[in-house]
Each structure stands twice: as C-alpha cells, then as structure tokens.
Amino acid sequence: MKATVLGAAGGIGQSLSLLLKINCHLISELSLYDVVNSHGVGADLSHISTNTSISSYLPENDGLQKALCGADFVIIPAGIPRKPGMTRDDLFSFNAKIIASLAEGVARYCPGAFVLVISNPVNSTVPVFAETLKKFGVFNARKLFGVTTLDIVRAKTFIADLTNKKPQSFRVPVIGGHSGATIVPLFSVGAPEAYSSLSYETKSALIHRVQYGGDEVVEAKDGKGSATLSMAYAAYALVNQILTAVTSGLDNEVVSYIYLDDSIKGASELKSKINGLDYFAIPVKLGKEGIEIIDSQILDRIDQAEGDMLEEAIEKLQGDISKGVSFIRGQ
Ligand code: NAI
User: Fold this and answer.
1) Per the UniProt entry, what are the Gene Ontology biological process annotations, in alphabetical order (predicted)?
2) Whose Cα sits closest to atom 4 in ligand 1?
C-alpha cells in the first residue's frame, strides 16, 4: 500500500507520519507532501530502520502529482489549526480553499484512493472534498472518511478517569459531527454501567468535556496550536482499522463522518431519522471496498438526553454541511 500524508510537516502530520513509519507494516511507501519542510521531515523519518520507504514532495516540480500518483490512502491534516478563542468554524474560509485544491489533486491523480480528512472544520471540509470529487465525476462515498476518532478517544479516556477503569474497557460511539454541540457521545450505549453510576452533574460535565475537550488543549498550548499528538494517535488508529479491513476483508467497525449515499446499506434509514442530513458521524462496518453497512439502528438505543443532544446537533450540522456544499457549488 502507498499512503500519502498531505500537510505532513505540521504538528499532526509529523507525529502521524512517525506512527505510520514505525507501526504500519502494511504501508510499503509513505509519501509526504507539504508546502514547507516536507524534505526535512522526510529525511529525518527515512533514517528509521523499518521497511516502509519514505518519499517527500513540495509543490514545485509537480510535487502534489508525484505525491499522490499510485496512492491507496490519502490522509489530510493540511491547513491552519485553532488559536485560543477560535471555533473550528473560524477556520473555514482558509482551510476550505486548501481542501478543495487537494481534493482536485486526488480527483486527478488517485481517484480510487481511500481518503481521511482531518482538517477542520470537518463538518464542512468533508462536504467540500466530496463536492469537488463529484465535480470531477470520481466521488465514491464508501472511501471518504471525516476523522472524528479523537472524540471517541477522549470519551473513553474521560469516563475511564472518572470511574477508575481502563479506557480499553469502553467502546463509546460518538455520533453527529466534530464540533461543540454537534458532538454527541453515546455513553448510555457504549458504557452503560459505568455511566449510570454517575450523578446527573457528573454526566453533564463529562459530556461537555468530550464536546469541548479540544479547547483544553488549545488553551494549554496558548496560541501554539491545537491537539496534535492525541490527534495523530486517533488518526493512526483509524488508518490501521481501515487498512486491516481493506487488506483482510475483516468487517471492522469504525465511527466516521461520512456521506450518506443511498447505495450504502442503512443510509436511507439513517437519513429518515436525522432530518435528511447528507453527512453524519455514525458507526459503519468496513469491507475490502470501504464502507459496507451504516448502523442506523444505534439511534433506537439512545436515551432521552442523548436524543435531545441529537436534535441540537442535527440543526447545527445542517448549516455546516450547506456551507461546505455551497462553497464548491457556488464557484
Ligand atoms: P499545523 O499548522 O501544525 O500543520 C498544518 C500543515 O499544513 C502545515 O505544515 C502547513 O504547511 C500545511 N499546509 C498548509 N497548506 C497546505 C497545502 N495547500 N497543502 C499541503 N499542506 C499544507 O496544524 P495541525 O495542528 O497539524 O492541524 C492541522 C489541521 O487539523 C487543522 O485544520 C486542525 O484544526 C485540524 N485538527 C483536526 C482534528 C480532528 O479531530 N479532526 C483535531 C485537531 C486538529
């Protein structure tokens, strides 16, 4: 497999590339692309004694084309991160342009690749990406993933902290989107016993911490960026699960922010429950060709409070999605 990281010299890009270089034996070539310093990062990583070969590219000399040609996986943390006081939406005007140009590159040079979009605001950059691929007639909803895994990583960590249990003992699905109120952690589904032992106030604080956990990192870094190390870990975990499903056909389940294409089993059923939204973070089963089944039934198992959060998320997501779609359709 060839994997390409776009934005490889950034905080997430460097840490993620390191994890992929040292831990992913399924990746034979790791291709690094950035507008700055990709050769430095590439030279550094290339000295690590694992079998994954490293190549690096800048925009000059058709760098994007070379980085993407033959790629099976494209992982995108390119763009600017938040500073204190900023919401993810504040990043849209800058990052949407970057995502649209990189999507054009994917459409031209590796239209069949699996793509993982990390750049924020994910709720809107994934529609930007999908709409660009549609313009080129190469969109495959089964292979496009908006990365919301960090919300799940945080949900597991935070409830484990509160209940003195191991994070691995929980599988908390976090559905909806990836910003503030659109992040809907389903503790009642993924950690029913531990969650029900908490007081109402502790439950509310836990949910709030998952929804706004990113702010803790932004504040602590004090103007020097947002989550990079935990994000790299989360993206690495998702890449690994998709890689395993694609190469072995194992029906791994992941949660991701995806386009609800009617051709995917469970998509229409889910859409009928979420006011017809076209994009949503939801557990999906994977196979060799990507997303095979959407777990629409998970919504039948949530509690009243989660149902209320879901309603709020749906309303906000509608606007976030339209913003991304009209950015491309309005051009
Ligand atoms: P960073 O600023 O450290 O790195 C971004 C990199 O993108 C830089 O090296 C920059 O040169 C590069 N870049 C800019 N324009 C580019 C282009 N046209 N082509 C290729 N590379 C380009 O930022 P960081 O901290 O790595 O964050 C990256 C993105 O990930 C941000 O948008 C951030 O908000 C997002 N993020 C997403 C999370 C999620 O859960 N999905 C969590 C944390 C951050």
Assistant:
1) malate metabolic process; tricarboxylic acid cycle
2) 10
